[in-house]
């Protein structure tokens, strides 16, 4: 049923939009899979390619630098992908075609890595996969939002984050069949351990191929907003009716509540396209110098950097090695990482239901506080001076528990809220360029963290990232304001009534009068709570 008796629209749970969203979140799966795929096989690669100069050793400076570079190169490629996504000519392709392009890069990267003959071929393959990651990380959520009916947009959007954690879990769990690397001379790798890493690194080729077939042949559907932007209003109307599983009439009957509602949505899309065409082009560097826009720009960049500088991707990518520092047996490392990733999935499912109940600011504060506490507890457990009072057989598992709590805290805090919050604080004039800049900063921060973490012990990592999380908590408390329930066109950081103070948005010429926004005539339109939060 597409509508109930009262006339309210009731889109099908797994109709056309639901099936397309299922196809799109394959990119989310590839996102998570790419982050942690080397966790279980990185040390075996060191032995296979003899990075330490022999056929048994996996831990040496050359091995650490090679693993760090290979792991981190995917984020360097993602930064270039995000830069590409910010170009106006690229956005005209549409999010579906952008995902298809990302599949090409994912497949190419997987093929190169699966057939790798050394360090540099692995780096090149990971860079190619990173390009796909940087493109799909932006195009995927956009296509989900554009193709989803309004009534299910929030639920469908949450699936992006959920499937990232599913990808992380799969990349770690698929490594369970492998044995730990050799630990002394005379021990060598054999059997499955010699070639299984090629399967792990090549798996994205299959997933990308399936997604490309589905989105290009089975569901070659562009969202109504893109069709309107291309002046295909009739195609947009047809797609809108298909999304709600309704038959499109030859002539809309506006007395029919369901048809009237869809026609109103179509009109809103046309108005949004006309508004977008009239928006002035403002570069991020210009916005940074504007007294009205700079607060949102700097806060967004800071939050995007904090999401990665807290250490999440570095700790996830090397969890096996870090758990070994905590005293776990080599045979238990991948299993412990799998349990950690399972907790991550659970936390992601929990956060998808709490974002609109708790609010953005509260989740960010709670998550960063729990991350800080978790790092402090792990440091106390493994520090020789303080951990001597706790038996090793207890300290190791406890360290894993609090390490997992750190990851789960990220999932329902920074992981769930950051990009939603960033999309809500930017006015439409700078939203696209600013989100692209935040994406580049985010990926470059991740590159630094993932490369550098390989040279840290678990204790050093806890000290570094614990301090970063604490600083981030203070910054969140001081500068982040709540956006729950606010219109995306009127954020507390960029209220419509404040645009007269903008050098870029207010004409400097006296011959071009400034048109006041409706709420400028009524000072009470901006609630006192927003003013008080913005001045904190």
What structural keywords apply?
mainly alpha; 0% strand; 536 residues; disordered C terminus
| N/C terminus separation | 49 Å
Give the averaged pLDDT, no decimals: 85
Relative helix content: 55-70%
Question: H/E order of the elements?
Answer: HHHHHHHHHHHHHHHHHHHHHHH
Number of helices: 23
User: How many strand units?
Assistant: 0
Structural class: mainly alpha
What's the Cα radius of gyration? 25 Å
> What spatial form do the alpha-carbon principal axes imply?
globular
User: Hey, roughly how much beta strand do the residues contain?
Assistant: under 5%
Largest sheet: none
Low-confidence stretches: 1-7, 508-515, 517-536
Task: Please sum up the structure shown.
The chain is mainly α. It is built from 23 helices and no strands.
Topology:
Blueprint (H helix, E strand, L loop, with lengths): L15 H21 L5 H7 L12 H25 L2 H4 L3 H20 L4 H29 L5 H21 L18 H27 L5 H6 L3 H11 L13 H22 L5 H4 L6 H16 L2 H6 L1 H7 L7 H26 L1 H23 L1 H4 L4 H21 L1 H12 L5 H23 L4 H22 L48 H7 L2
Helix pairs in contact: 1-6, 1-7, 1-8, 3-6, 3-21, 5-6, 5-8, 6-7, 7-16, 10-11, 13-20, 13-21, 13-22, 15-16, 16-17, 16-19, 17-19, 17-20, 17-22, 19-20
């Amino acid at each position: 049923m597409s509508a109930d008796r009262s006339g309210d629209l009731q889109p099908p749970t797994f109709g056309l939009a639901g099936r397309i969203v299922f196809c799109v979140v394959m990119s989310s799966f590839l996102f998570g899979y790419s982050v942690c795929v080397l966790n279980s096989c990185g040390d075996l690669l060191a032995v296979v390619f003899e990075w330490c100069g022999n056929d048994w050793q996996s831990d040496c400076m050359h091995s650490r630098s090679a693993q760090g570079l290979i792991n981190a190169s995917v984020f360097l490629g993602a930064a270039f992908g995000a830069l590409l996504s910010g170009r106006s000519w690229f956005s005209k392709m549409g999010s579906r075609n952008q995902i298809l392009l990302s599949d090409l890069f994912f497949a190419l990267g997987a093929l190169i890595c699966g057939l790798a003959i050394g360090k540099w071929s692995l780096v090149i393959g990971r860079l190619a996969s990173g390009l796909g990651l940087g493109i799909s990380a932006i195009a995927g959520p956009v296509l989900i939002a554009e193709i989803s009916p309004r009534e299910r947009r929030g639920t469908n959007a949450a699936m992006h984050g959920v499937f990232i954690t599913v990808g992380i879990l799969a990349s770690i769990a698929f490594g369970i069949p492998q044995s730990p690397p050799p630990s002394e001379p005379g021990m060598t790798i054999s059997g499955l351990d010699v070639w299984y890493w090629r399967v792990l690194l090549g798996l994205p080729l299959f997933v990308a191929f399936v997604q490309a077939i589905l989105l290009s042949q089975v569901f070659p559907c562009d969202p109504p907003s893109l069709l309107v932007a291309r002046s295909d209003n009739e195609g947009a109307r047809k797609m809108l009716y298909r999304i709600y599983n309704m038959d499109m009439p030859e002539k809309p009957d506006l007395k029919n509540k369901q048809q009237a509602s869809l026609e109103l949505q179509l009109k809103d899309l046309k108005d949004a396209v006309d508004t977008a065409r009239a928006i002035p082009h403002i570069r991020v560097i210009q916005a940074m110098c504007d007294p009205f826009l700079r607060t949102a720009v700097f806060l967004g960049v800071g939050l995007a950097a904090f999401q990665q500088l807290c250490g999440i991707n570095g700790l996830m990518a090397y969890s096996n090695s870090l758990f070994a520092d905590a005293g776990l047996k080599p045979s238990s490392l991948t299993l412990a990482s799998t349990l950690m990733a399972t907790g991550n999935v659970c936390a992601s499912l929990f956060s998808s239901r709490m974002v609109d109940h708790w609010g953005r600011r509260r989740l960010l504060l709670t998550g960063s506080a729990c991350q800080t506490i978790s790092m402090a507890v792990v440091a106390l457990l493994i520090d020789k001076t303080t951990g001597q009072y706790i038996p090793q057989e207890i300290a190791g598992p406890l360290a894993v528990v609090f390490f997992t709590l750190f990851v789960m805290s990220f999932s329902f805090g920074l992981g769930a809220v950051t990009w939603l919050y960033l999309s809500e604080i930017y006015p439409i004039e700078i939203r696209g360029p600013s989100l692209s800049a935040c994406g580049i900063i985010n990926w470059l921060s991740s590159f630094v963290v993932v490369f550098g973490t390989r040279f840290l012990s678990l204790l050093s990592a806890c000290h570094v990232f614990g301090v970063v999380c604490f600083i981030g908590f203070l910054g969140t408390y001081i500068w982040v304001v709540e956006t729950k329930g606010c219109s995306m066109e009127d954020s507390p950081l960029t209220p419509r009534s404040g645009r007269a103070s903008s050098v870029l948005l207010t004409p400097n010429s006296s011959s071009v009068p400034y048109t006041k926004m409706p709420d400028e005539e009524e000072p009470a339109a901006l609630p006192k709570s927003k003013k008080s939060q913005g001045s904190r």
